[in-house]
UniProtKB/TrEMBL annotation:
Subcellular location: Cytoplasm
UniProt xrefs under SUPFAM superfamilies: Ribosome recycling factor, RRF (SSF55194)
Protein's UniProt name: Ribosome-recycling factor
Function: Responsible for the release of ribosomes from messenger RNA at the termination of protein biosynthesis. May increase the efficiency of translation by recycling ribosomes from one round of translation to another.
HAMAP family reported for this sequence: RRF
Amino acid sequence: MSIADIRKNAEAKMAKSIESFKNELGKIRTGRAHPGILDQVQVDYYGSMVPISQVANVSLLDARTISVQPWEKGMGPKIEKAIRESDLGLNPAAQGDLLRVPLPALTEERRRDLTKVVRSAAEDSRIAVRNLRRDANDQAKKLLKDKLITEDDERRSLDEVQKLTDRIIAEIDRLTSAKEAEIMAV
């Protein structure tokens, strides 16, 4: 393994951390509806728990309403119960086969709670990136110890990995600020 491989590997893993963080932010709801909000809700489907997206079509009716169209007739009440019992605080209304899930307006207190959740997710992502930096630095030090690279090469590698880490953490901070501004906007 060379220094370029170490850097490329660290960069790829840090990019995955950013994507994971973006997905996490997408699940945190703001004032607008988003079909991804229901992704973690599980429904009992013939004895096994599956995500709603595997038993129904989830889409948006308007900016504050999600529609859930079950693929089977008998699934409507089960999906409605699963959404109601989830910790999302949503109250679906059945209209024939279609379920309408209106999103209530966020209170100031709930907005503050959501910003805390965003900050927590951001900190978890920063920790993951720092762990990746540590792993990359350990690999470079091992190459030095095995006398496969020079001390100058090791120092250069540590600097490159640090610059990469700083850039990724700055991106996480930017995404966090944008999400907090979106949540606090009335």
